[in-house]
From TrEMBL:
Species for this entry: Paraburkholderia fynbosensis
Any one cellular-component term (Gene Ontology): plasma membrane
Domain Major facilitator superfamily (MFS) profile, residue spans: 33-445
InterPro entries the record matches: MFS, MFS_dom, MFS_trans_sf
Keywords: Cell membrane, Membrane, Transmembrane, Transmembrane helix, Transport
One Pfam family cited in the UniProt record for this chain: MFS_1
GO molecular function: transmembrane transporter activity
Spans traversing the lipid bilayer: 74-94, 106-124, 130-150, 171-193, 205-224, 259-280, 292-313, 325-344, 350-369, 390-412, 418-439
Cell compartments where the protein resides: Cell membrane
PROSITE patterns referenced in this protein's UniProt entry, alphabetically: MFS
Annotated protein name in UniProt: Fosfomycin resistance protein AbaF
Amino acid sequence: MRHMRKMSAAADADMVAEHASYSNPDHREVRRVIVSGYLGCAIEFYDFLLYTTAAALVFGPVFFGNLPPLMGTIAAYTTFAAGYVARPLGGVVFGHFGDRLGRKHMLVITMTVMGVASTLIGLLPTPQTIGWMAPALLLFLRVVQGIAAGGEYGGALMMAIEHCDQNRRGLFASLIAIGAPSGTVLASLAFGLFRLLPDSQFLQWGWRVPFLFSALLLVIGLYIRSRVSESPLFLQALKREGEMSRFPLADLLRHEWKAVILAVVTSAGPLAVYIVGVTFTQTYIRHLGFDSSIALFALAIANGVNLVWFPVCAHLSDKYGRRPMLLIGFLLSILLIGPNFLLVSKGSPFLTTLAFWLLGSFAAGPIYGPLGAFLSEKFSTRTRYTGASIGYQLGSTLGAGLTPLIVTSIFASTGGTSVIGVCVFLAMFCGVSMLCVVLSRETRRADIAY
């Protein structure tokens, strides 16, 4: 009996030590983790926006020039969608090994693969040189991008919230998330500047330069990421249990399937709105006869605001809860979808910038600020990488992967005369995501150490 009491006391001491380590993190290490995750997210969204912008403006005439312009754009969006279909596979693969072997090494691999794939897109020959192999290689590299991206965001979130204290999880997760507007700003400015070239030069070589710049971002990101230590909660769980789950996906679907469904649908709505802003809106502006570079610079300005706005909203979610902020964001998005297209249709740079700010910043902040923490807090340490990655990436596939193709087809079905169907589609998407938040429990004070 005395021996059992000693074992119990030792176990209690270990539990207290684990919580002390989690509650009093090494601040220098936390900074490295945040910078590493931020850069990974920035590279992901830099590459992402380059591809989406190129799909809207370049890949149609360059790789699908034998098709009518709108059909060429739809073909380009199909390759874009393929990357999103591949993302859940990346979430499963990197989530599996991240939950079994650790977060850090998986994140080094995801960053490397993303950066290399984007650089190679900038070096692709055209169909005039290698025929059908050109669009086939474009599709292949997009799928590779998607697989790597599928493991990046979820893993970076895990490292952030598993290194920081409980009361600041929303804020620290948002510091990873602002990599998205940072990468968007950088890609918008890069593509916007080269878009000022004459069309012949832009289509011949100008669009390639921003893709090649991915190589420099990759070198910087890998230098930072290689110096980051493993997640303390993962190491504590490994010490406590002796071995992590052999099949995290099976455990996830057996014990936490409801959380997966809620994570998927909650993510899908805002991603659908976001992707329409960075893809279809440019197609719409060009269809109206306005300069598409207006949208790129408006997007850069709106996302510049998000560098501050996302953390502010995340901090508010640490104080008042994830659910209230998310519900406010979804309601604002539903109300502002129609006015967004109305302002854009005027062709004014100021009104276009205002439209992007209202929907892509003012309404997006209360969603994207707390979203990362909200998703991560739903899962246990044993399955958190897999759960958050699959939840977010299936949401990406559902909400963002096919949305450009769907809304462009809806718009084309009207003869290019009305966006009412597009607005209704997006509002319904956001409404379903909002319902999932209503059905979810508050996670702000959840104990994620187990």
